[in-house]
């Protein structure tokens, strides 16, 4: 006897489950009005959005709907469009201004019946995700999130693995809150580079100029490693490898690549290998202007090809991150008005990097406003910690002890809010190292580096943390590595000064003097660097140069840098020796 059961088929699909929040309460308040509003939402809003994004409504269930899409990207774009439209619709509905949707999206295998109904675990997960979404928000599964990488740079909140009702296994949940849903997103799968979102970058495949296809793996490997290193900078959206490599070998203008991937910056480069020598060139371009922000060339001898690949990728990623931050600060400063907490942070960054007493104070006020505007975002706290550390170390604050306490608290708060961000741990490290809590500073710096091995500031702040306990050799290595990763940071005069201290008190006054002079080349006439030169010259017996440096210290009109705060010394005699060298050099000058 033939099988009479209805035929069904399986297929992979993105499933969207939507539900009107509090429909029973709305019905009690205005039954006819609520019913009409819900009908409009399900048919005119959700149905129309589904059609525009190549989906279909499988069925409606009173105040809810189940939809199917071939693409998770289209499913999310439909969800965003629907949420935006419902918000606008509800605003204009007397008595129903509180209508909101919850939406859940999953990607999974489904069973499709003859009447085109859908069943299965993939559907059940979508329904449960809708149940845990915030009113006006969207929850997606980890499978959907993975598919969105490089396509929709939206501020999803990682809510970790959750146990959903009647689902045996834990599901990784990501949430998009109502305040993060932009009405511009449904119009395109990618944001415009001109939007005020956080900065974004694509690393296009480095060109192989070696003349042999056997060298392709090396060029691709460097590109892969740079992408991986940059993704650890949580303030920066990085286009996925699959998106970037779609342009491999194609002669396409930078502006076109940026527009197609929806990014603000493009990192491109080339690799040329000849025998045992490799030359890697890299350039960072701002898509909007077409201008080059940064360019560098790396010449290396090949010993261990994989180690070389890692080294170059680390140096490139470490070098461009501060350049991006500085450029973003300038963009924020040029905006006519501040729209978001991130805009306030960017303006503050611009002031911060001027490194002057007045600009540091202005930066501090902007970071405080950013925290007030968005108290649950880590960025404002990170930068507040950094500016408080600077005000104390450079002697620009009226109450450095109180400022450092505020900075320490801000750094710790940033870790609470975003513990996977290396900048959060740097904020803890830099405030605690100048605040004299060296063990905490060391642990925080090490954590920052473990999160992002190319994070220059992590190595730089680890240097004085090591210095504080007399680990001079390790301090030198850490500071040198950080300076190599970020050779053009505007605050490198501080790190060069600390490296000079480490060299000098480890017995290498020649290297100490050379490094202090490098600090002066970054910040001319800076008193702490001049004092180190005077000490090194005294140790080397060059009394003429010692007198010259000491005279510049005496004639300085602006006093910057508190040595007792700047140098986390394990021995108070270090500060005494530096100051004594100045006094001796000046006295010897008078005795001549």
Would you kindly provide a brief summary of this structure?
With 592 residues, this protein is an alpha/beta fold. It has 23 helices and 14 strands.
Structural commentary:
It is a single chain. With 592 residues, the protein is α/β, with parallel strands linked by helices. Helix content is 54%, strand content 16%. It contains 23 helices and 14 strands. The protein has helices spanning 23-29, 31-52, 72-91, 121-132, 142-148, 216-230, 241-244, 254-261, 305-334, 341-352, 357-373, 378-393, 400-417, 422-434, 438-451, 456-467, 472-485, 492-505, 509-522, 527-540, 543-555, 563-566, 573-591; strands at residues 8-20, 55-61, 64-69, 101-113, 118-119, 138-141, 157-162, 171-176, 200-203, 207-208, 237-238, 265-274, 277-286, 292-301. β7 (157-162) and β8 (171-176) form a beta hairpin. α15 (438-451) packs antiparallel against α16, α18 packs antiparallel against α19 (509-522) and α18 packs parallel to α20 (527-540). Residues 183-196 have low confidence and may be disordered.
